[in-house]
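ok trying again, last paste got cut off:
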Amino acid sequence: MDRNLLKENRVHGDVMYPLSVYHMDCSSQHILDCHWHDELEFLIVTAGKATFQIGTSYYDLSAGQAVFVNSGDLHAGYPLDHSHCSYSAVVFSPDLLFSAGHDMLQEKYITPFTQRKLETASCLKGDTLWEKEVLKWIEEIFVINLEKTYAYELETKARLYLILSRLLADSKSAGQVSPYSRNDYKAERLKTVLDYIQTHYPNKIHLKDLASIISMSEGHFCRFFKQMLKKTPFDYLNHYRIQKAAKLLESSNKKIYEISLDVGFDNFSYFINIFKVHMGCTPSQYRQKNLFPS
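nice, full thing came through this time. structure:
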């Protein structure tokens, strides 16, 4: 099975400067789909409230608070209190932290960090002085990379090192040395199931198929999935199919009925209803908004 199906393949920045910043304004229904990538990421809420999931943990954030996503971590965002939310993201490759030659900094700090031999803080709420400093540096990185003034790359890298020093100092003082935990195991099992769904979504998928992938009973599997993603397996499957349908509506002139079959719906009326629930409009209306004829 190709694990890269669940993995985000977007290129962030370029080979010489592998970092990008993003800003997202979200509805009260949808924030961030569950996914993972090799890059490191800081997500900072700029308005409203949201719940962010990292692995098996959930963090309720308000404006000015952030989470850190390590390489390979499953993560997602969910509405909190029906609030609209906006957030900024700083996404960068671990390669940006390395030097051309192997030195003491890499041996003592960078390599253990990128190899996950230290468990660093995931949630930054600004309750301590060092958290306030890190949040300020994240916000500055976002602004610097939007303005792109002279030497902004140096300014960015300097702040990333400052952030890393605070994260590592905190984990050191808390004695958080990391090993592979039960929560890591649960997240890896979930990745396996999501990979299967994203590979086979055009076909009929039965609950027993999903449960058997990770050797669970159907009842245990449903509880496991709901605990991890806050939705049932078939809610997730329908959501994923609708996202695929939306992309086809945007990028092709296929008939809507054909698209419903392509993404796994064999009942056209059900497809229309589910699409309206997830997208707030009919497939035909969605296509019209995206400049394709019905």
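cool. The longest strand covers residues 40-54. The chain has a mean pLDDT of 87.
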